[in-house]
């Protein structure tokens, strides 16, 4: 059976060859774009010229000029070339098929698959460099007037849960987890002085780019939780926390993302325990008020 990496060996890296041949002739701004594409090839397959511009601090016109300076007709031609070398992006159907084939319809194998993934991930999450990143993130959140939590797909549920935990502990927090134009209404909640916690991976998307653009406009620092070695929004992050999600060719595990979110929430609560206690006491008073029968009944 041919693996994706074995298949790539027989393909010609046209982009790499052109970058080596022409890279020295590029202006500094064009070189920034070319280097970003080279370092984030799979992410670029799903990005527009505007999104690449946002990642590189350039303009969409500069992105197109860089692509053409490397000998491609345009961004679409470049993407066809990259896709031909990398192979197609692994779909969720393929990932589930690979996962179920690995588990061979065995319940014990399924238990061990999830257990092994989480145990290996815990080792990564709790490494010294990640502990320092988590501590830096908590300090950043502590100084924030509010905390926005961005996540779409499965991470949207975690964003809601995290916002509820933070509110219970006396923090102003809100989820940024809708897709399409519905996200715009949520972004109205973001204020100068807030902190953004973003759950993101290698691929960029319009929602993430729009959220970061608003954060940039308001000078809101971003904390990134990612399992990718080359995350799409890594350059914009003030703090990056690496959260592995299992093997790239199998179904991703989200438990470690949830665990890391809880590390942040409870670590933040531990820095100001009185604030959390006051908020929870107020919450229980509200619970009692809600349970009271209406007057006159």
TrEMBL record:
Pfam families tied to this protein: HTH_6 (PF01418), SIS (PF01380)
Domain HTH rpiR-type: 13-89
Domain of life: Bacteria
Species assigned in the record: Xanthobacter dioxanivorans
GO molecular function: carbohydrate derivative binding; DNA binding; DNA-binding transcription factor activity
PANTHER family to which the protein is assigned, alphabetical: GLUCOKINASE, HTH-TYPE TRANSCRIPTIONAL REGULATOR HEXR-RELATED
Domain SIS: 137-274
GO biological process, one term: carbohydrate derivative metabolic process
Record InterPro entries: Homeodomain-like_sf (IPR009057), HTH_RpiR (IPR000281), RpiR-like (IPR047640), SIS_dom (IPR001347), SIS_dom_sf (IPR046348), WH-like_DNA-bd_sf (IPR036388)
PROSITE patterns reported in the protein's UniProt record: HTH_RPIR, SIS
Protein name, per record: MurR/RpiR family transcriptional regulator
